[in-house]
Amino acid sequence: MLTSRRKPKWSMISHNVPCTECGSQSIEDSQADIAILLWKLICDEIRAGKSDKEIYKKLEDDFGETVLYNPKFDTQTAALWLSLLLVAGVAGGIWAYKKHRQKTNVHIMALNLVRGVPLNSKEKEAKLYILTPPQMPGLISWWRRLQGQ
Questions:
Q1: Domain CcmH/CycL/Ccl2/NrfF N-terminal: where (predicted)?
Q2: Residue 38 CB burial class (10 angstroms; 0-12, 13-18, ≥19)
Q3: What is the domain range of residue 13?
Q4: SS3 for 49?
Q5: pLDDT in tens, 29-52
Q6: pTM score above 0.90
Q7: C-alpha span between 109 and 36 (Å, rounded)
Q8: How many angstroms separate the Cα of 15 from the Cα of each of 8, 24, 141, 145?
């Protein structure tokens, strides 16, 4: 068993190592066989006087990078994060294009009105929406009260 002086170190390390069987729990909370094996390995390494970095390095060498909650930043993880940025950029580009296209369609509709080209039903609705002033009930009732109506 670990001495009381070494328990905080074990607790900190074991809290940062997920159970590879459970996935959602740390080895500190898990009762799975692999968690117990990792727990014993960490205890042995602490008793041997190894530093935190050395213990994490041994775990990574023995079990792979997935045994740690915080994997290293390398080409694989960089590609993953950059792909998210790429998807966000494409979505933003599509949104901006649609907004630009909306404005362009209004301008084309206005030109067609000047040229005398008849509007379809969707364009007529858009024209009414654009040309109708917004309803402001508070202002209208205030104005009517002022006039005495």
A1: 9-105
A2: buried
A3: 7-67
A4: coil
A5: 777 888 888 888 888 888 888 888
A6: no
A7: 71
A8: 10, 12, 65, 69
